């Protein structure tokens, strides 16, 4: 009887007594890892001390096939029961990827390759057109497909209401069109208060069958979303591309960047105005004009403001 009680006490101490590690430890259990390899990972990180007891206890409790692949944060104060609960429960560490306002497919694919090393072969061709700038969670074992699916599900859920509540007078046929015009608005201004005004300008031009003549579309036509570190030239404006709205009428075939919610909202519910033109004011905003004559005066104002900055 004494030996039985002693054995029970020994078992209890091994399973439920807390022990202290030097620091919190992150471990990764890849998919398909068997118990022998899991045990070696835990021994190497000094999370467990006894291989035989650990493996025997796991098998005795029928947990060998229940341990889930993932990346786990092990507290510096732990016991075997808590450890196995964590590994069986499968609550892997969640990482976060920020898709910044106005980021292009090119830049986002580059960021994904840098932030998620296992996706070094990631191509911008994998990215869908219609996703919004936001912060997205993922785990180390998420596949490329599940990562992209998460982008799409969250984006669709957030944009659905915007589309349903749109001004029915805007000349757009689909959510695809909404993303396209919102992406141009996103690149035209960083000022939230201007977005609805700019949306109004674009719709006024579309209704009159005028070209949008948006500089960001020219830049995209030249770089496909890559870096552009110079001023546009007159020759650039003539670049023959389906994305260059100085050359083609209507909308480009797809978004030129990933827009923010505020740009999508502006595209869906624009300001009702009589403006057909706008130009930078030299201070982060824009001058708006109802006529080309007024627009030319605004261009002159911009050039004067630019000169003063240089001086």
Largest sheet: 2 strands, antiparallel
Quote the distance from N terminus to C terminus. Answer: 96 Å
Q: What structural category arises from helix and sheet content?
A: mainly alpha
Q: Return the average pLDDT rounded to an integer.
A: 89
Low-confidence spans: pLDDT under 50, at least 5 residues?
2-9
Q: SSE order, as H and E? A: HEEHHEEHEHEHHHHHHEEH
The total count of helices amounts to 12
Q: Tally the beta strands.
A: 8
Gyration radius (Cα, Å) is 29 Å
Q: Helix coverage percent of residues?
A: 40-55%
The percentage of residues in β strands lies in 5-15%
Multimer state = single chain
Characterise this structure.
This protein folds into three domains: 2-89, Endolytic murein transglycosylase (Dna Ligase, domain 1, 2-Layer Sandwich); 95-155, no CATH class; 167-310, no CATH class. 46% of the residues lie in helices and 10% in strands. It has twelve helices and eight strands. It has a two-stranded antiparallel ribbon with strand order 1-4. The chain has a two-stranded antiparallel ribbon with strand order 2-3. Strands 5-6 form a two-stranded antiparallel sheet. α8 crosses α11 (261-268). Residues 2-9 have low confidence and may be disordered.
Which helices and strands appear, and what pairs or packs with what?
Blueprint (H helix, E strand, L loop, with lengths): L1 H15 L2 E2 L4 E5 L5 H10 L6 H10 L9 E5 L2 E2 L1 H10 L5 E4 L6 H11 L19 E4 L5 H21 L10 H14 L6 H13 L7 H9 L10 H4 L23 H8 L8 E4 L5 E4 L2 H19 L1
Antiparallel strand pairs: 1-4, 2-3, 5-6, 7-8
């Amino acid at each position: 009887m004494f030996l039985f009680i002693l054995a029970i006490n020994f078992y209890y101490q091994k399973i439920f007594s807390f022990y202290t590690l030097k620091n919190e430890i992150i471990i990764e259990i890849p998919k398909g890892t068997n118990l022998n390899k899991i045990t070696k990972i835990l021994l190497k990180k000094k999370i467990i001390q006894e291989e035989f007891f650990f493996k025997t206890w796991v098998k005795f409790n029928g947990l060998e096939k229940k341990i889930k692949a993932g990346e786990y944060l092990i507290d510096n104060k732990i016991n075997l029961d808590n450890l196995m609960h964590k590994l069986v429960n499968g609550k892997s560490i969640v990482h976060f990827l920020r898709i910044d306002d106005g980021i292009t497919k090119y830049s986002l694919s580059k960021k994904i390759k840098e932030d998620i090393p296992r996706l070094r072969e990631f191509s911008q061709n994998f990215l869908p057109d219609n996703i919004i700038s936001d912060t997205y969670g993922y785990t180390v074992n998420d596949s490329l497909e599940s990562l992209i699916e998460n982008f799409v599900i969250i984006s669709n859920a957030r944009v659905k209401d915007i589309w349903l509540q749109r001004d029915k007078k805007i000349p757009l046929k689909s959510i695809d069109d909404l993303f396209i015009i919102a992406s141009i608005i996103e690149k035209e201004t960083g000022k939230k208060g201007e977005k609805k005004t700019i949306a109004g300008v674009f719709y006024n031009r579309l209704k009159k069958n005028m070209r949008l003549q948006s500089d960001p579309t020219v830049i995209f036509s030249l770089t496909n979303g890559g870096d552009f570190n110079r001023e546009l030239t007159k020759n650039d404006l003539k670049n023959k591309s389906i994305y260059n709205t100085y050359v083609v009428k209507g909308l480009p075939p797809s978004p030129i960047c990933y827009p923010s919610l505020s740009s999508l909202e502006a595209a869906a519910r624009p300001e009702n105005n009589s403006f057909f033109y706008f130009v930078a004011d030299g201070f982060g905003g824009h001058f708006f004009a109802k006529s080309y004559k007024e627009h030319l005066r605004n261009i002159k104002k911009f050039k004067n403001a630019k000169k003063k900055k240089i001086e």
